[in-house]
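C-alpha cells incoming
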C-alpha cells in the first residue's frame, strides 16, 4: 500500500475565479490534511468549464498523491464536476440508485417536491462511488485517476462548508492513507514592527531552503510570521531540532516577536494586562472603534478592557472629553495633532478609570488630507496612571483599510512596549510605515 504524503486542493466555481466569493474551503482542508500528516502542495481554483476542470484533474494527479475538490456538484447546467471527473478517469456516468433515493428522501423529509434536474446529483463515474451527504442534496464522489502503476484518489465534495466539513470527516478521512512515519509539525512565530525583508536578513542562514526544519516568512495584516516546518518522524532528535530552531528564530526576531501559533497581537495585549492586573481604555477617532473591536474579539478581554469612546467628530471630542473647540479652529493644532491625541488619551483614561488609555486620531482617506497632514498621517497617544505618557506621529501608506489597521496595531505596540518596559523601535522616532 502506497502512503499519501501530498495533496492537491481544487476549488470549482465562477464565483471563486471572479473574486465574488472567498474560498474558505481550501484553507480548512489544507489545515485538516496537515493534521493527519498530508501536506497540500497545490491550491487550484477552476471556473465552471468542463475542459478546464478535466484538465485540472489530470494535471493535479500527475504531481500529488490525493486530490480533494469542492464545488460543482449541484443540479444545474453549470455544475460540471461529475462529468469532468468521469472524463478525467476515462469513465462514464451512471445513476447511483442509493444516492437517488437519498436525494429524494431529503426533499420528502422537508415536504418538498424534488425537481427532475436533481436526478443529476445521483450520477457518478461507473467505477467510482458516491459519498452520502447528510446535510444537503449533493452526494460526494470518490474515484481514482491512473498514474503509471499507481492510483491517485480523487474526492469531490459539495461547496457549502456546512456540507463539506461533515462529509470530509465522515467519508474522506477514513479513506486516507497517511504515512504514520511522515508527521508534519509547524510552529509559527509572530512579529510586528518589522518588514519581511528586514526580518529575513535577521534570520540569515536559517532561511536557506535546504535548512531543516524549514524556515519561511509570510506577511499579513501588518504582522510578519516566521513559519518553522518539520516533516518526517517526530522522534527526540526532531523535537530537539524544532525547539532549537524556534529559539534561534525568537532570538533573531528580538523585540519584534510577540506571540506563537494562534496568538494575535490583541491576545498578547490582553494577556500582558491580565498578568499585571491592569486595565485599558481606548479613545478612537479615525479608526472608529476598530481597536476596541480587536481587543474585545479576545475571550476574557472583559477582565482588562474598561471600555472605549468613539469621538469621530470634533463636537464629540468637545462634548465627551471637554477638548476646547478652539483647538479645531483655523490656526489651531486641529483634530489630527499631538495635542489632541494626548488630551484624548489623558481625558479618556480618567473618564473610564483605566490604568492605561490609547488614543488614535488621523486622516484615513481617501480624502481629507492636506500638504501639512497628508492622507495616512495618524497621531497615537498612550497615557498611564503612573503619570507617564507618549505621543507619536505615524505616516501610513495604503488604502483606508490599511491605514486604520496599522493605526490600531501600532497603538497596541506602544502599549506593549510600556508593559514590557522596553525601548521598542516604534518609540524611537516618528515612523513611516
Amino acid at each position: 500500500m502506497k502512503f499519501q504524503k501530498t495533496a492537491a486542493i481544487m476549488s470549482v466555481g465562477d464565483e471563486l475565479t471572479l473574486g465574488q466569493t472567498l474560498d474558505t474551503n481550501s484553507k480548512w482542508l489544507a489545515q485538516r490534511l496537515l493534521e493527519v500528516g498530508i501536506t497540500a502542495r497545490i491550491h487550484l481554483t477552476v471556473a465552471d468549464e468542463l475542459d478546464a476542470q478535466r484538465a485540472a484533474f489530470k494535471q493535479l494527479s500527475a504531481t500529488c498523491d490525493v486530490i480533494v475538490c469542492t464545488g460543482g456538484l449541484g443540479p444545474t447546467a453549470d455544475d460540471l464536476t461529475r462529468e469532468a471527473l468521469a472524463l478525467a478517469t476515462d469513465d462514464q456516468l451512471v445513476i447511483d440508485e442509493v444516492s437517488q433515493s437519498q436525494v429524494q428522501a431529503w426533499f420528502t423529509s422537508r415536504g418538498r417536491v424534488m425537481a427532475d434536474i436533481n436526478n443529476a446529483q445521483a450520477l457518478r463515474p461507473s467505477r467510482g462511488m458516491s459519498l452520502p451527504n447528510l446535510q444537503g442534496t449533493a452526494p460526494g464522489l470518490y474515484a481514482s485517476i491512473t498514474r503509471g502503476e499507481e492510483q491517485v484518489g480523487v474526492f469531490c465534495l459539495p461547496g457549502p462548508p456546512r456540507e463539506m466539513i461533515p462529509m470530509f470527516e465522515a467519508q474522506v478521512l477514513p479513506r486516507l492513507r497517511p504515512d504514520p512515519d511522515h508527521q508534519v509539525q509547524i510552529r509559527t512565530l509572530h512579529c510586528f514592527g518589522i518588514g519581511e525583508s528586514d526580518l529575513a536578513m535577521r534570520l540569515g542562514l536559517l532561511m536557506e531552503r535546504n535548512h531543516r526544519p524549514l524556515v519561511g516568512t509570510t506577511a499579513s495584516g501588518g504582522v510578519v510570521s516566521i513559519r518553522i516546518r518539520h516533516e518526517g518522524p517526530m522522534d527526540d532528535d526532531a523535537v530537539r531540532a524544532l525547539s532549537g530552531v524556534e529559539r534561534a528564530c525568537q532570538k533573531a526576531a528580538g523585540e519584534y516577536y510577540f506571540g506563537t501559533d494562534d496568538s494575535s497581537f490583541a491576545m498578547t495585549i490582553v494577556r500582558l494586562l491580565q498578568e499585571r492586573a491592569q486595565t485599558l481604555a481606548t479613545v478612537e477617532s479615525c479608526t472608529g472603534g476598530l481597536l476596541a473591536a480587536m481587543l474585545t474579539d479576545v475571550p476574557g478581554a472583559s477582565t482588562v478592557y474598561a471600555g472605549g469612546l468613539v469621538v469621530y467628530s470634533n463636537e464629540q471630542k468637545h462634548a465627551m472629553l471637554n477638548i476646547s473647540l478652539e483647538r479645531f479652529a483655523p490656526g489651531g493644532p486641529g483634530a489630527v495633532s499631538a495635542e489632541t491625541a494626548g488630551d484624548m488619551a489623558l481625558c479618556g483614561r480618567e473618564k473610564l478609570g483605566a490604568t492605561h488609555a490609547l488614543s488614535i486620531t488621523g486622516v484615513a482617506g481617501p480624502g481629507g488630507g492636506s500638504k501639512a497632514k497628508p492622507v495616512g498621517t495618524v497621531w497615537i497617544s498612550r497615557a498611564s496612571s503612573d503619570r507617564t505618557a507618549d505621543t507619536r506621529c505615524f505616516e501610513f501608506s495604503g488604502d483606508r483599510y490599511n491605514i486604520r489597521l496599522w493605526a490600531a496595531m501600532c497603538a497596541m505596540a506602544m502599549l506593549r512596549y510600556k508593559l514590557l518596559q522596553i525601548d521598542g523601535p516604534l518609540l524611537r522616532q516618528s515612523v513611516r510605515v
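note: The chain has three domains: 6-175, 183-260, 269-432.
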